[in-house]
Write a structure and sequence with these properties.
Elements (H helix, E strand, L loop, with lengths): L1 E2 L3 E5 L12 E5 L4 H7 L1 E3 L3 E6 L11 E6 L10 E5 L1 E2 L4 E2 L6 E10 L5 E11 L5 E11 L2 E7 L3 H8 L9 E6 L4
Antiparallel strand pairs: 1-6, 2-3, 2-10, 4-7, 5-6, 7-14, 8-9, 10-13, 11-12, 11-14
């Protein structure tokens, strides 16, 4: 898969949020190495993510993220990566999702066959190798460009992970089927 992940969160109308004062906050558009590529966290022998400069695979801007989804035979969990919503180094905190209505991303599927991607939230980070993943939604990627719009059931998520509010979302993850 080759993807242009201009990942963003949309505010609910009239709500308060740390997400920003506009209707949309872009978490990663992959136009710059820092913070976009530096923040990515690859898990479960994901493979690799590279800079793509081929404009045929760029939705907007000058470049995109090229995904090499592999996944290891020894892993029982499908490979995924996540984009943190909090960074001390880059000085941002978008973990409060009280006013977030949706999260969207553009993904390009170069194959003629459909592919599946699951999108969900990271609700806990135990250490460098262990994160807690909250409920996900599956999307079918057709050949070509696909816009993913994830509208999470936040009431279900906070009740299942024990939050009092929607203020503990530490990342957004994208999980793919293994290619091996």
């Amino acid at each position: 898969l080759i993807g242009c992940f201009a990942v963003s969160g949309c505010k609910k109308k009239g709500g308060q949020s740390q997400i920003a004062d506009t209707d949309k906050t872009v978490l990663a558009d992959f136009e710059e190495s820092a913070p976009d590529f530096q923040l990515l966290r690859l898990r479960e022998e994901f493979g690799a993510i590279d800079v793509n400069m081929d404009t045929a695979f760029v939705k907007s801007g000058n470049q995109s993220a090229k995904l090499y989804v592999m996944g290891g035979e020894r892993n029982t969990v499908d490979p995924y990566f996540y984009i943190p919503t909090v960074s001390d180094y880059f000085n941002f905190d978008y973990s409060n999702f009280n006013s977030v209505e949706s999260v969207s991303a553009w993904v390009y599927n170069p194959s003629q066959e459909e592919a599946q991607v699951a999108v969900g939230f990271v609700t806990g980070i135990t250490d460098l190798y262990k994160v807690d993943l909250a409920r996900q939604e599956y999307f079918t990627l057709q050949s070509g460009w696909n816009e993913i719009i994830y509208r999470p059931n936040m009431s279900y998520i906070i009740s299942s992970v024990g939050f009092d509010e929607y203020d503990g979302i530490l990342g957004i993850y994208f999980q793919f089927e293994k290619n091996c």
